[in-house]
Amino acid sequence: MAGKILIVDDVATNRIVLKVKLASACYDTLQAANGTEALRLAHAERPDLILLDVQLPDMNGIAVCAALKADPATRAIPVVMVSTFRDPASKLRALRAGADEFLSKPLDEVVLLARMRSLLRARETEEELRLRDTTSRELGFAEVADSFDAPATIALVAARRDVALSWKRDLAPHLQDRLLVLDREDVLAETLTGTGQAAPDLFLLAADLALPGEGLRLMSELRSRSATRHAAICIALPPLAPETAAMALDLGASDVIAATACPEETALRLRCQIRRKRQADRLRAQVADGLRMAVIDPLTGLYNRRYALPHLARIAERAQQTGRHFALMLLDLDRFKLVNDGWGHAAGDAVLVEVAERLRSNLRAVDLVARLGGEEFLVAMPDTRLETGRETAERLRRVIEERPVTLPFGQGMVPVTVSIGLAIGGGPRNAIAPVDELMCRADHALLGSKAEGRNLVTISRPAA
Ligand code: GH3
Ligand code: MG
Fold first, then answer.
1. Looking at the structure, do residues 335 and 402 belong to the same domain, yes or no?
2. Fewer beta carbons below 10 Å: N end or C end of the chain?
3. Which has the minimum average pLDDT: 357-366, 408-417, 425-434?
């Protein structure tokens, strides 16, 4: 995975050393020698990640980071801050300013590259979700950012219970979230990760549990389960374990946190991961919503043609496998144009909505009701023989006819009727007709109902 990395450092040799290292890992680089130039390049070039020195000649690197994170155009770019000093206070300030990581020089190349891969991967996922949902751009993320701060559930898993309890004690003053102390078995129990109960939003796992590296294996297990696949997982590292850090990141840890980190730093990192996770959850929900919108008719809430035809094919396939029958109806409102002409388009819409509701509430959950377009509807009923199909079609015709539809804006009521064509598919294996032939037969029957005076059910009888 290559990417474009902006290196911000006032010392030219530092920039060059990094450029060479990153080039050998297939990254393109841009360089800035001060904060102003960094902000300019971040805007103009939209790098995939920024390596930002804390000590800059014109402004503090932390202020640069804060400016990047405050600007919607650059907010999503991951920032790794780099400092010559091991100064816990500026580390905290950097994390508070929105930095994604804070590393001290000399940089451990293995850890740096693993961290960069992890941040770029997270960014890629987010970008992909964003792309898949075009409307989310217009809705704008920043506007709903506040709700990301609602309390979350955090599971704490250490090698020993008393260690996890001490984490809880230390973190509690810094977090509003629900902190659960669990052991490995609790985490793996179905009750926690099954569908019954909401899984924790975040797991903080010690890298080493009863066995060295067991925390990383537990992480992989959680990533493979649907209930916890999208949870944030942070790995608490034993002291001086750069290889473990790199491995954890490459295995998909959301963050790695040193054992030596102060509780406030840990809390900041956990909060950051919870916000990320919620943002991703929201995007996923929007994408799912987008998919739903693509198959739902916005006026009536019924499925549209795009959904109905493949679904009908699936019903037919199943009928073929089981040898059972299914019913297909095409329904068309009678003289609907007169409603539009007499009362206006809004009245016509109200009629369509009401008819859709009457159809839906007079069918089983397994039946499909769809609006094919205009004032034409489709009903498909699995496991249905001719007699039941005919009775149902008659019932639908009746429930439309028996009560006039109330129009909006006090326009009174309008009588509505529907013509229906019914065809039966499936049955004994040798008599299977293709779906489009069945559609044709139902359509023919519908035309028959229209020709015979409307407000009728006509049954298509196969030529045999
Ligand atoms: P028939 O009994 O032969 O089916 O006559 P009809 O008037 O129902 O059929 P026709 O095809 O002549 O007219 C259908 C009308 O449906 C024309 C169109 O303006 C209207 N229509 C289609 N979609 C919508 C819609 O979404 N809302 C409204 N209000 N009207 C629609
Ligand atoms: Mg019509």
1. yes
2. C
3. 425-434
